[in-house]
Specification:
There is one protein chain. 54% of the residues lie in helices and 0% in strands. By secondary structure, the protein is mostly helical. The protein contains 4 helices and no strands. The longest helix has 15 residues.
Length: 71
């Protein structure tokens, strides 16, 4: 489900291979706001403000680990 949420933003990105989403400016602050809302709505996981770091959103693997840890 998380991968589907990411693909809504940028379907052209290979999230399994791309590990620098923030660094390469694929995902911006507006995308992060969207992701936080969608993760809360669809996965029932709230991401607190102190977890909104580039490291947590720089790759699918990092974001997935965050969601699993908070879920």
């Amino acid at each position: 489900m998380l991968l589907e949420i990411l693909q809504e933003l940028h379907p052209e990105i290979d999230y399994a291979a791309h590990t620098t989403l923030i660094d390469d400016r694929v995902i911006d602050s507006y995308d992060i706001i969207f992701l936080v809302g969608e993760i809360a709505d669809k996965l029932d996981v709230e991401i607190p403000a102190d977890e909104l770091t580039p490291e947590n959103f720089n790759s699918y693997a990092a974001l997935n680990a965050l969601v699993e840890r908070l879920g």
